[in-house]
Amino acid sequence: MKTLSSAKVKTSPVVAGLNLLLADSYALMALSHHAHWNVEGQDFFALHTAFQTHYENLFEAIDEIAERTRALDAYSNGGLKALAKESGIEEFPTGSVAAKDYVAGLVVAHEKTLADAVAVRDTAGAANDLETQDLVIGRIQWHEKTLWMLRSYLKPSHA
User: Fold this and answer.
1) What is the DSSP string of 138-151?
2) Which residues 6+ apart lie within 8 Å of 132 measured at CB?
3) Quick check: is 31 in a domain?
4) Which among 58, 59, 70, 53 is positioned nearest to 19, based on CA atoms?
5) pLDDT tens per residue across all 159 residues of the chain
């Protein structure tokens, strides 16, 4: 039986991009979960629910991204330490964090994930990998919509 370290690992720019998107999505899922658990204040109920919707969506996306990598006959990266290192997305501090700071931190993480998703879309397009491109376009649309909503929360009210 071959061990993972001795198995021939197939790599390509599309696979590398998918693994980065996987790492970003995993880190963003963890951030959203952290914010869901710890958000406080007058917007608790709305944000608690929104953050749950985010991490649930990301959990499903992670599986789709990893399985697409496997469908390309390559291996998906894994492990919390490896994924965190590859994503480079900063974690929230432990303890009390203002609701707006959770939202602002999630905006930064979504922007990074979106930029990496756009790069995968373009790489997959250049490789004529329309299936990967289709998957990633769906992720781009979700991140764009989520960013719109998070940014709207941060705008001052006009009461």
Assistant:
1) HHHHHHHHHHHHHH
2) 14, 18, 68, 72, 120, 124
3) yes
4) 70
5) 444 443 445 679 999 999 999 999 999 999 999 999 999 999 999 999 999 999 999 999 999 999 999 999 999 999 999 999 999 999 999 999 999 999 999 999 999 999 999 999 999 999 999 999 999 999 999 999 999 999 999 998 766
3-state secondary structure 53-119: HHHHHHHHHHHHHHHHHHHCCCCCCCCHHHHHHHHCCCCCCCCCCCHHHHHHHHHHHHHHHHHHHHH
Which residues, including other chains, have CB under 8 Å from residue 151's CB and lie 6 or more apart?
107
The CATH number for 100's domain is 1.20.1260.10
Looking at residue 46, its amino acid is: A
Query: Token match 């996987």: residue?
Result: 22
4 lies in some domain: no
Of 53, 64, 65, residue with least CA distance to 146:
53
Cα 8 to its chain centre, rounded Å, is 27
Residue 33 lies in a domain: yes
Question: Is the Cβ–Cβ distance between 59 and 29 less than 8 Å?
Answer: yes
**Residue 108 sits in which domain range?**
13-154
* Structural domain includes residue 36: yes
> Domain total for the chain?
1
